[in-house]
Design goal:
Layout: H1 6-17, H2 30-35, E1 42-43, E2 47-48, H3 52-62, H4 75-83, E3 89-93, H5 103-112, E4 115-120, H6 125-129, E5 132-135, E6 144-147, E7 153-156, H7 168-181, H8 193-203, E8 230-236, H9 250-253, E9 261-263, H10 265-271, E10 274-279, E11 282-290, E12 298-302, H11 310-313, E13 320-325
Parallel strand pairs: 3-4, 4-5, 8-12, 9-11
Antiparallel strand pairs: 1-2, 6-7, 8-13, 10-11, 10-13
Helix pairs in contact: 4-5
């Protein structure tokens, strides 16, 4: 999903063959976030902001006259607005800059923010830069709801009861109430998970037309390699990698797969068992392995198993990198 054109190409294949396309997200909360309206184009229940009837539904539930027609900002838009001085404050919840589209730009945006509030369960680069840090409760100490890839709701209750634990919801509600006292916005209207579930149940899912799939330009099928020695970068995260949730558990991390670059047999024969990949953000060196089912003109590396990760140290997925032979140590 992070490679430009990949979703469009999959949709075209589904349409041409009569198949149906399903999205199975990697993270457990992704589908639920969409249903909650966390995308800039959506309102709660998956209602599109652009739909007047959808806005009326939510405005009625919230007891306001109307909702704005303007879409919100996505992550890249927030970063750009902070850099331009259009936003003064920032609330960050469990975001690692190295996981964003442009890690350097994200770090600059956090530094440019006039006031930063961080929600996290561990010390991170963002908590170090924040003005206020809320040590929020982990999943085991709070209630909530997941939505699986089929759209089925799966609620859970706290497994461990810790009186001092602070759920994210309580912190967000408190921030909204304080801002309302200063004349900015309004209170959320709820402080507990049960109250949120009741409101979502009353509002219900959107029964109108869902937003369709955009068809942006994508990488041409012919000629994945743009020039001699240049290859399209493919990547995704491994289950065990350099994620901060594994910090301190050296025995678990020791079971992670050894990071390798997957290449075609032709590339392996040309450059040998150790290769250096170079992109617009730097270079990484890894042992190479042959992947017989890899498309010509493509190289795959794990997203967050070496250094600061592919996005910070190499390039964005779908862009081109060069490959050269390397000698000596790797990683």
């Amino acid at each position: 999903a992070t490679v430009p054109g990949a979703l469009t190409a999959a949709a075209e294949v589904a349409a041409s063959t009569g198949a149906r396309l399903a999205w199975v997200p990697r993270r457990a909360g992704d589908r639920g976030a969409i249903e909650a309206g966390c995308l800039p184009t959506l309102l709660p229940g998956g209602r599109p902001v652009a739909d007047a009837a959808a806005r009326v539904d939510v405005a009625t539930a919230w007891g306001v006259d109307a909702l704005p027609e303007t879409e919100g900002r996505d992550a890249d838009g927030i970063v750009a607005a902070l850099a331009a001085g259009e936003l003064g404050g920032l609330v960050v919840a469990g975001v690692d800059p190295d996981d964003t589209a442009d890690p350097a730009a994200t770090r600059a945006a956090v530094a440019a923010a006039g006031f930063v509030v961080a929600f996290d369960i561990r010390r991170t680069e963002v908590t170090d830069a924040a003005d206020v840090v809320f040590p929020v409760a982990p999943t085991s100490e709070k209630s909530g709801t997941f939505v699986n890839w089929e759209g089925r709701v799966r609620s859970w209750e706290a497994a461990l009861h810790q009186p001092s634990s602070l759920p994210d919801l309580r912190a967000l509600s408190g921030i909204a109430e304080e801002l309302a006292r200063l004349g900015q916005g309004a209170p959320l209207g709820f402080r507990t998970v049960d109250e949120v579930r009741a409101e979502m149940g009353q509002l219900g899912p959107w029964d109108g037309e869902r937003a369709g799939l955009d068809t942006p330009s994508h990488v041409p099928r012919e000629g994945n390699s743009t020039s001699e020695g240049a290859y399209r970068l493919s990547t995704w995260k491994q289950l065990l990698d350099n994620g901060s949730m594994q910090d301190g558990d050296k025995y678990l991390k020791a079971t992670a797969r050894t990071p390798v670059a997957l290449v075609t047999r032709e590339v392996y024969d040309a450059h040998g068992p150790t290769v250096t990949l170079t992109g617009d953000r730097g270079s990484i060196t890894l042992p190479a392995e042959i992947a017989d089912d890899l498309v010509d003109g493509v190289v795959w590396v794990p997203a967050s198993s070496v250094g600061n990760g592919v996005l910070a140290d190499l390039a964005s997925p779908g862009t081109t990198v060069t490959i050269s032979g390397a000698e000596g140590t790797h990683g």
